[in-house]
Design a protein that fits this description.
This protein is an alpha/beta fold. It is about 35% helix and about 10% strand.
Length: about 950
């Protein structure tokens, strides 16, 4: 084996393994298998054009060279992004720890108690700081959280407002531009009007249902919104507040002045800047809105023996269940970053967070006084960390900027010539005096060094926080590094991740996140970059992004790409908005229907509704393919209104449909576009691609196919790739409007007249979305090369078909392709088991935990089944161990079936068996302890001890308790 190439480290089976696996599958060669699986008419004729692969060592040098092109200046731009100090104990033990970053979304509560507790810490901290009773466990970013707030408030309109079609939201003009831009993009297809103006002039007319304000506002001014809130509520309108989470340690929290929704970013709670993302947004609201909140909520429950435990609550709100009626299309959020922010509050506690906030504020006050002494006018009467400065007549903005850059300082420059300065946690005495010297030199004045005035405060007493926060013992117990390290370790021991065993979740592609891909993320040159710095300071980032964009275009067969969508669901929405804009530009804006197969991910219909489309579901046939007769009939019936088809390929059923090209041609013949969901791109790369097949747009789940880790439910990245005719409609950004892809490419495009008259489509706060994790995908492609990527796809298909061959005679495979093979995943049949024994697919999933495995995808896309995707990264040894486990469970099912085991008391319905039960003096089951917890030799050698018994889902939904304090109410 070539030991210095990532390809051989990334792909599990070696040459000898492949021979054994092919024999089991019943084919003579891997080529034969691929030819059987993928239709010949969509196979690429030439390899992808990519650079030759780098060794892991060469890649580390290459990333060091790119990092050196990023210039880290002292940046005081603010506007939603602030430098912060990530505690080393959190960076080392969470951010760089594969137990945390390779775990999956905690649907299976029994093997997720560690990260569920970490996310509960986050929710509790958010509730405490905002003064609200309920918070979710993160959203994508502050701007999308704002848009979600508007959507939720729209859905909560009382009957009279719905009857009168109240559709106006008042938005204060002092809101961050990127937040307003995303709100405008999202409001347009939903028929919501944003009326922007001064909050002091808001008129709550009958057509208004809500208002959105910022605290402190975009200038940094702290305003008193209590009178406004009372006026809004008197008019039966709701109030949403974008609040700086750290400022709330000193400012009266919005919950105390009766806000309905509070949202924002937790980036400054120890999460690096990452050139704009990823970081965790927060969303807090009233308890009565719990069933309308977007995203995921962690709540308390009990296990079957009464032990308190955590679980994801109210999951019936999610897209996979409610589909087009879901509260939001949000799927992946920012769990890893929320975990880090939550640990930041645990590590610092109330006094630590207050101390950080006070230091920032005192430094800002000291700067304010120094600048006024130099002749500058500061415009904010009350502020937390941000000054807006009017320059003296003799000082020009250009001269000040020149001086600042010479001192390696970035400031914010307003259109009218004012200058903004936002102080952060990293601003020490030296940095403060450098800042003062910049303004002194620009005014041709001299100044002496100063010390910040401890305790200095300009926040009016009426706006100062009086209430305590972070009072739970968890925030008061772990303030030494030793205790914090051990607390983090206690939590990670409760969770199954890829560091322990294969996670075979179908349609989730839980593959290797190689250490060599991850290491650059810890470099300060990538972590410390503000997204709005001048381009010449971010050349390393921009070079990487440009190259990665070209690689993804070649891999997908498309002409353009946008990295702005920061999740797969956001990518779906963005792709549909691109289609919407294109159709509008050619006079076809009336097309408002989207065809979606019944087997599609639940985010597909949810995204379509969010983009303003009506969903038409088309059936699947008995083989799991799109029912062509039904598709033709519905396409023809809706020909004049049809905007697009959303289709996953290979299908969510795990097969390559042979009619895919015919499907694309049919949709195009109706004047509509084909949106290909990229969730299963791991079975396409190097062998076929969406552009070659005939699609017009696709999104890519970089956290699936392209190795970005799942992080327990985020971060994700969902860039979209589009055909040439859609390139002018890719997302833009208000901070770079003149240089946006859309505007630049349109200049030479005479076909789509009037495109620049369309509003900018901004779908994320940051211009490049989750730019900070793009080095993972970039590294995967650079170190694998074209041949390695293709080999990975072939291995993914091989591994899936090997498992299918091993399990077909017991469980059975629900769907196979036209030639009898599966793609990169398969659906195991469990419905007959239930009919014959009463054992459910959920019982099998829970029993797998006793064997040290995370459950496959449960009851999706077919109810009563398990969907398995092994990925290419698993070795034959791991696959064989999984097969042994599944067959052992099959034997346990047979024991129930033939009466050897009791239907009322067996290892399956009682699974999982927690450690505390196994070691208890009392054992009341009809089977022994060894059968329960040590069923095979491999388990005995590598036991994963489970912390809780089966969790009571009904209790957790019936009684939502979303903070740490809630345990007393169980």
């Amino acid at each position: 084996m070539e030991t210095n190439t990532l390809c051989n480290r990334h792909i599990g089976p070696d040459e000898n393994d492949v021979k054994k696996m092919l024999e089991k599958i019943g084919v003579h060669s891997l080529d034969e298998l691929i030819n059987q699986v993928i239709p010949a008419d969509i196979r690429l004729k030439e390899p992808i054009e990519l650079p030759e692969p780098l060794t892991e060592y060469a890649y580390s040098k290459h990333m060091a060279e790119l990092a050196a092109k990023n210039k880290l200046y002292a940046t005081y731009i603010g506007m939603g992004w602030y430098n912060t100090i990530t505690p080393a104990v959190i960076q080392r033990n969470v951010f760089e720890n594969p137990v945390w970053y390779t775990s999956y979304t905690p649907y299976q509560a029994e093997i997720s108690q560690g990260r569920l507790e970490a996310l509960m810490n986050f929710q509790t901290a958010v509730c405490d700081l905002t003064g609200m009773p309920l918070a979710n466990s993160s959203l994508l970013d502050e701007a999308t959280a704002a848009a979600e707030a508007v959507t939720m408030m729209h859905g909560l309109r009382p009957r009279d407002q719905q009857k009168n079609n109240a559709n106006v939201v008042l938005v204060d003009e002092k809101i961050f531009p990127q937040t307003l831009a995303v709100m405008q993009t999202r409001a347009l297809p939903q028929g919501i009007e944003l009326r922007v103006g001064q909050y002091t002039s808001f008129e709550f007319t009958p057509d208004v249902f809500a208002c959105v304000i910022q605290y402190p506002n975009a200038d940094g001014s702290v305003e008193d919104y209590r009178e406004l809130t009372a006026q809004a509520h008197a008019a039966n309108c709701k109030v949403a507040v974008a609040a700086d989470i750290l400022s709330l340690a000193l400012l009266t929290p919005p919950g105390e002045w009766d806000a309905d929704v509070v949202f924002g970013s937790t980036q400054r709670l120890g999460v690096p800047l990452f050139y704009g993302g990823p970081s965790a947004a927060y969303f807090a609201t009233r308890d009565e809105y719990k069933r309308n909140v977007p995203g995921r909520i962690i709540g308390w429950s009990k296990d079957k023996y009464g032990k308190p435990c955590f679980r994801m609550a109210l999951q019936t709100r999610e897209q996979h269940i409610k589909r087009e009626k879901a509260t939001s299309n949000i799927c992946t959020a920012q769990a890893l970053l929320a975990t880090m922010a939550g640990f930041y509050t645990v590590y610092h506690g109330e006094e630590g967070v207050k101390s950080i906030a006070r230091k920032i504020h005192a430094t800002t006050v000291s700067l304010d006084k120094a600048l006024q002494a130099l002749g500058y006018k500061q415009l904010n009467k009350a502020y937390f960390d941000t000054l807006r400065i009017a320059l003296p007549q003799e000082v020009s903005t250009q001269h000040l900027q020149s001086v600042a850059l010479s001192k390696e300082v970035n400031l914010r420059y307003f259109d009218n010539g004012d200058v903004g300065v936002s102080i952060d946690e990293t601003t020490d005495v030296c940095a403060l005096n450098t800042l003062i010297s910049v303004f002194a030199m620009a005014a041709n004045r001299t100044t002496e060094s100063i010390q910040p005035v401890n305790g200095a405060c300009v926040i009016p007493d009426t706006l100062q926080r009086k209430s305590s926060f972070l009072m739970h013992p968890v925030f008061r117990s772990y303030h030494t590094e030793t205790e914090m390290m051990r607390y983090i370790k206690r939590l990670d021991r409760k969770d199954i991740s890829l560091a322990h065993s294969m996670i075979s979740l179908g349609s989730c592609t839980m593959k290797l996140n190689a250490a060599s891909e991850m290491l650059p993320l810890s470099r300060p040159e990538f972590g410390g970059m503000h997204p709005l710095v001048p381009a010449d300071q971010a050349q390393g980032y921009l070079e990487m992004i440009q190259n990665l964009g070209q690689y993804l275009q070649r891999i997908t067969g498309f002409a353009g790409v946008s990295f702005q969508p920061n999740s797969g669901a956001a990518g779906e929405y963005t792709g549909l908005m691109v289609i919407r804009s294109f159709l509008t530009s050619i006079g076809q804006g009336h097309r408002d229907k989207v065809l979606i197969p019944a087997s599609a991910h639940g985010t597909n219909p949810a995204s379509a509704v969010q983009a303003g489309f009506n969903v038409v579901i088309c059936a699947c046939d008995e083989q799991g393919n799109v029912d062509m007769d039904d598709l033709r009939n519905k396409a023809e019936a809706n020909r004049n209104e049809l905007a697009a088809l959303m289709i996953t390929y290979p299908s969510t059923h795990g097969i390559f449909e042979t009619s895919i090209r015919e499907i694309c041609e049919l949709i195009h013949s109706c004047g509509a576009q084909v949106y290909m969901d990229g969730a299963n791109m791991n079975a396409q790369v190097g062998l076929t691609n969406p552009g070659f097949i005939g699609a017009d747009v696709c999104h890519l789940n970089l956290h699936k196919t392209f190795c970005i880790p799942h992080g327990g439910g985020g971060p994700g990245a969902g860039p979209i790739c589009v055909a040439a005719h859609l390139v002018p409609f890719l997302p833009s950004h208000p901070h770079f409007a003149d240089n946006s892809t859309a505007n630049v490419l349109h200049a030479a495009d005479g076909v789509h007249a009037g495109v620049n008259d369309l509003p900018l489509h901004t779908v994320a706060a940051s211009p490049y979305g989750s730019a900070g994790i793009l080095p993972v995908t970039y590294g995967y492609i650079r170190m694998m090369g074209a041949a390695g990527l293709t080999a990975a796809t072939r291995a993914a298909i091989l591994n899936a078909n090997y498992l299918a061959a091993c399990l077909r005679d017991t469980y059975g495979i629900v769907y196979r392709g036209a030639t009898g093979f599966v793609g990169h995943e398969m659906i195991l049949e469990c419905r007959n088991i239930h009919q014959e024994t009463g054992i459910t697919e959920n019982d099998i999933a829970k029993r797998l935990m006793d064997y040290g495995y995370h459950a496959p995808t449960l009851s999706f896309p077919v109810h009563g089944t398990l969907m398995v995707e092994p990925t290419e990264s698993e070795s034959l040894a791991e696959l064989d161990n999984f097969v042994e486990v599944m067959l052992s469970i099959w034997q346990e099912i047979e024991e129930v079936k033939n009466g050897t085991a009791s239907k009322e008391d067996n290892v399956l319905i009682n699974a999982p068996h927690p450690e505390y039960e196994a070691v208890a003096d009392n054992w009341e089951h009809s089977y022994g302890r060894q059968k329960a917890v040590y069923p095979t030799e491999n388990v005995r050698n590598n036991k994963f001890w489970i912390n809780v018994a089966r969790v009571d889902n009904t209790l957790g939904d019936r009684k939502l308790l979303p903070t740490l304090y809630g345990v007393s109410q169980l």
